[in-house]
Write a structure and sequence with these properties.
Distance between the termini of chain B: 42 Å
Order of helices and strands of chain B: EHEHEHEHHEHEHEEEEHEEHEHEH
Shape of chain B: globular
Number of helices of chain A: 15
Shape of chain A: globular
Number of domains of chain B: 2
Number of strands of chain B: 14
Largest interface: A-B, 42 and 45 residues
CATH superfamily of the largest domain in chain A: Thiamin diphosphate (ThDP)-binding fold, Pyr/PP domains
Order of helices and strands of chain A: HHHEHHHHHEHEEEHEHEHHHH
CATH superfamily of the largest domain in chain B: Thiamin diphosphate (ThDP)-binding fold, Pyr/PP domains
CATH topology of the largest domain in chain A: Rossmann fold
Largest sheet of chain A: 5 strands, parallel
Number of domains of chain A: 2
Distance between the termini of chain A: 78 Å
Oligomer: heterodimer
Mean pLDDT of chain A: 95
Chain lengths: 368, 337
Amino acid sequence: MTAVSSARLLPTDEPRCLIDSDGCAHADLGHNDDTRLPSDVVLLHLYRRMVIGRRFDAQATALTKQGRLAVYPSSHGQDACQVGTVAAMADRDWLFPTYRDSVAMISRGINPVEVLTLLRGDWHCGYDPYLHRTAPQCTPLATNTLHAVGLAHAARQAGEDTVAVAMLGDGASSEGDTHEALNIAAVWQAPVVFVVQNNGYAISVPLAKQSHAQSLAHKGIGYGMPGLLIDGNDAAIVYAAVSEGIARARRGGGPTLIEGITYRIEAHTNADDDRRYRQSSEVTAWLAKDPIERLQKYLQNKGILSDADIASVREDADIRAGRLREAMNAAPALDPAELFEHVYVEPTRNLRRQSRWLGEELAADRRP
Amino acid sequence: MTAQPADAELSMAAALNRSLSDALREDARVVVYGEDVATLGGVFRVTAGLADEFGERRVFDSPLAESGIVGTAIGMAMNGLRPVVEMQFDAFSYPAFEQITSHLAKMHNRTRGRIRLPIVIRVPFGGGIGGVEHHSDSSEAYWVHTPGLRVVAPGTASDAYWLLRQAINSDDPTIFLEPKRRYWSTETMSAAPAADFDRALVRRGGSDATLIAYGAMIDTCLQAAEAAVEVGLNIEVIDLRTLSPLDDDTLVESVRKSGRAVVVHEAAGFAGFGAEIAARVTERCFHQLHAPIGRVTGLDIPYPPPMLEQHYLPSVDRILDAIERLQFDDTVVMPRA
């Protein structure tokens, strides 16, 4: 590898940013001269999707308090990473999300009720992965990165121009599967974009106990792939960086590792108590870097987002949240017999016996 | 599936090679990969020549990463391929444990049948070849304990060919356990599968007792059954072939007839697959049983160093001893090999 190409694989020392937390536009610090501020149409789309996502997130958190969801891991604060990533993807691309990517998934067009099926607990994956080209939400962290590599490789071998986007966090970057996925993706030059949402914590464990690397994006060069370090609260740079990674992958240039610096405003889940491991002043400081506020400021200053537009976007988000609340108030249809139906493509003799037995037990329970 | 190998006499390794070759030829969705499988042809040469014949796009060497091999196979299957991957040795499959148990086995169920993973994981398993540490494990209990997986272990060369074809054609994920010490044993290939994919097979008919086994232990059990003829015992030998889903109907039919049974496997006995078989057969044959179901298994120790492995492995003598304990008439005296 020559010195020049090595330099192009390294991330910038500081996270790249196109719109700062004051809502001011900046020139990109990156190596790629093509990385420019997305168009107004794209920025307005990102804004709208983030407002809808934030409202969805608040509604889902409320549903845990009402006992409608078993648990909910909030995306609050990571809105730009999730919305920006999905906005950069084509319909034919594949998303491999984790359990904290609900906002990414509703941005992908998946019915919010189906997104929350896992967390309500009436089944594991509530949506058709092929319909939305979105894999089931991955709970054993980093395992999804390998699925993304395999799918991307198979697609490329078949002559399709599909790109796979694998979502992971700073905690998952320590898992062995992340290493295997980055390495194999680079060896095979698979069309994959790895998007790391570095929110500072793996539940309670801070990044300093997770990695000694200068940044997680610096790991890219070790695999021979570009690493991009970006401001994960700037939807514009997330969109631009993921677009750059997808474009590289689509033209056969192999994988890209992107690290977005962001922050998890809420606790790990509603069941977590974050006061045990972080100061509230830290949370307050990050609230000032809010992804939605800064983009709103930028769009307002540019004169392309009026107060009426803002009210209209918020009203749309409220209506969607209301529909979600109503849908989640209805008890889900549960069929115990279905427990046996999908274990194998055809139920085995053993499972058919157990299904009959459960059916008889349920019938006996119903007798007066 | 065509009957490519009929009448030829092949070793199990060659039969598996032919099986992969025929599957690759008949179905463009089949890909074969793993460590050393392409240029080298696998450390046991099971994949020899396949990369030359089908090209490196369909038969290729992967990085040395077992979790990566299984994890990428899952992604490939999601995009329509039918990957056949190799774990070089039994104990080297453990890094892939999470991908196998949490994803491969569960994907179809968690997506309500929307994602099918027609993946075969080939694993050379078991001892008896003088392998050093970590090269002789029998790990089947981990896999049969995982709902969603098919677990297959052929005992003969012809069955190896057909079971692998059936596994590749199955839309369920399959752990395919190859008894490595039988790789070089030969058999005349049959023109059709000896039985359906998930059915056990009576390898030797008999009415006095039933030996239940799979993989490398089929040959050992057949030898024991022949030796028992000397004392006038007619022993039935059942080859399970598919360990999960288990064909307990065939077992029950045999044991109801014979009233006596011994399960034989190389893996450690404690909480081993034999315990499940003994329990299931007892539940369904209790009133026909004349003796508790016997077990001849490996010892409850880590697989021993090669110079001591003969003390670990089930032998013809140990099987005959177990038959002797099945409470026949006291005058029966077993021969010694």
